[in-house]
Amino acid sequence: PPGPAQDLTLDPLVPLRETFGFSGFRGRQAEVVERVLAGQSTLAVMPTGAGKSLTYQLPAIMREGTCVVISPLIALMHDQLRSARANGIRAATLTSADADWRETQDAFRAGALDLLYVAPERASQPAFQALLESAPIALFAIDEAHCVSEWGHDFRPDYRALRPLLERFGDVPRLALTATADAHTRADILAQLGIPESGLIIAGFDRPNIRYAIRPRESLMRQLTQLLEDEPGPGIIYAPTRKKVEELAQRLSSQTGRNVLSYHAGLPPDERADNQAAFVGSEDTVIVATVAFGMGIDKPDVRFVAHAGIPKSIEAYYQETGRAGRDGDPSQAIMLWGAEDFARARQRLFEMDEGRRQGESQRLDALAALVETAGCRRAVLLRHFGENPPETCGNCDNCLDPPDVIDATELARKLLSAVYRTGQSYGFGHIQKVLTGADDERVRQRGHDQLSVFGIVERDEAPLLRPLTRALQARGHLLPTDHGGLALGGDARAVLVGEQIIAMARPPARKTGSRRGQAN
Ligand code: ADP
Ligand code: ZN
């Protein structure tokens, strides 16, 4: 079928309306499209849902030649392919899952393709370069461009291998796209892909309709059940492992009576596709998933995104929570975190090589700062992405219900010295007994009742020990040992000698006895 007209003199608003059915550009789309139409290489950093696809699809139909789209996931490419074709755009993919290679290549050579999607590992192969020599190229669109940066949270070496290809076609403009790139990653993308600094366009990151809340995981099942009762709309619950996904989906379904599905890479492809389709088509379904779920899913009315454990980084958190409320209606993002999440993540640092460890460690510190702050969550998030937001937003847990901030420096010093004096091998329970002067056989046996730290914590301060330990673990001042004990780490020494102040939010008073461990 004949494709849309390729007329360089056309006003972009015409195909925007006629091909895509949109009455106008959104956010900074217009600027990006304008640059690309003028043949200028560009890096567009725009939040999920901002409409990045349009910024290359529109130039693809307006510029002469084919737009080559580099994209990391076959599923993502096929989603894009479907929606492009539904708009009457001449698009094809070249992936291992396609049987129509010959036709696609013929169409490309004949100049009958607006869009050609390809994975980075294929794009860097000589055979593909040879194909590209055979017809004009309008544009290289590099999706998920943060994958090119080792500094980014999702480095893929295949993206690095794109360079020779891009250099070979040096006069073809490049459009790099990402939803998640901090300043360091952005600079890296520009350098790696040869995009001038003036080509950086960053759309605002704020998602004002999303209400952020971050709480300790007290009893995961109880907290999630509550959420599902309060919020009847569709939602996503991210869980750290496949096993946890299965377990939560099953229990939440039977305990809340809601329609709860599961999604992870271990499910048979049919079932995964069915569950995804059911979720997308429904107005009340909850999906429990690993982070494999969500990329490329266009569901505007997701009312909540919950994390049953910490995400990988602030970037990942922003991207995952960003799947809520794309329609602009009020939505919630709730993270339920445990000290053990940070402990495990910090343990993994030791298995990394030096170069990676530093970046990961800083990412973890940034995440801990978001989790630990008594101030506005949105302000921390937006500052992380280089914006200069107001101090308060009025739509996060800490703005709506400001916690009491207490100076816990003295208590932290007591806690850390107890860990130190008992030999950095005991767990929280033992340390707590020592500090509160408990009458305990094991404490006496080890001679810990003779230590100067025995019984130095007052009764009214004792309830703060657990949240303080959690805070110190999140910040890396306390590290887990191989045998479930606690050891000093990070800047613990600076705290001990009084050089560093520890402020923390006063934990809300417990209504019932401790329910920890019940469903964690
Ligand atoms: P991203 O890739 O940035 O996450 P998408 O390209 O998937 O976002 O677009 C998100 C949604 O916004 C899609 O449903 C898309 O059709 C819609 N959209 C994009 N541009 C516009 C626009 N100018 N006007 C209205 N809707 C738009
Ligand atoms: Zn706020």
Structure, described:
β15 (478-480) and β16 form a beta hairpin. The chain has 23 helices and 17 strands. Residues 1-8 and 511-520 have low confidence and may be disordered. Strands 3-4-2-5-6-1-7 form a 7-stranded parallel β-sheet, sandwiched between helices. A 6-stranded parallel β-sheet has the order 8-13-12-9-11-10, sandwiched between helices. It is an alpha/beta fold and 520 residues long. The longest helix has 19 residues, at 354-372. The chain is elongated and about 85 Å long. The N and C termini lie far apart (57 Å). Residues 22, 25-26, 29, 46, 48-54, 298 line the site of adenosine-5'-diphosphate.
Annotation keywords:
about 525 residues, alpha/beta, 17 strands, about 40% helix, binds adenosine-5'-diphosphate, zinc, ATP binding, DNA helicase RecQ, DNA repair, hydrolase activity
Average of per-residue pLDDT values: 90
Residue stretches low in confidence (pLDDT < 50, at least 5 long) are 1-8, 511-520
Strands side by side in the biggest sheet:
3-4-2-5-6-1-7
Largest sheet: 7 strands, parallel
| Percent of sequence in beta strands | 5-15%
Q: Shape, please?
A: elongated
Structural class computed from helices and strand pairing: alpha/beta
- The N- and C-terminal alpha carbons lie at a distance of 57 Å
Report the helical percentage.
Answer: 40-55%
Extended strand count: 17
Radius of gyration: 26 Å
Number of helices: 23
Bound molecules: adenosine-5'-diphosphate, zinc ion
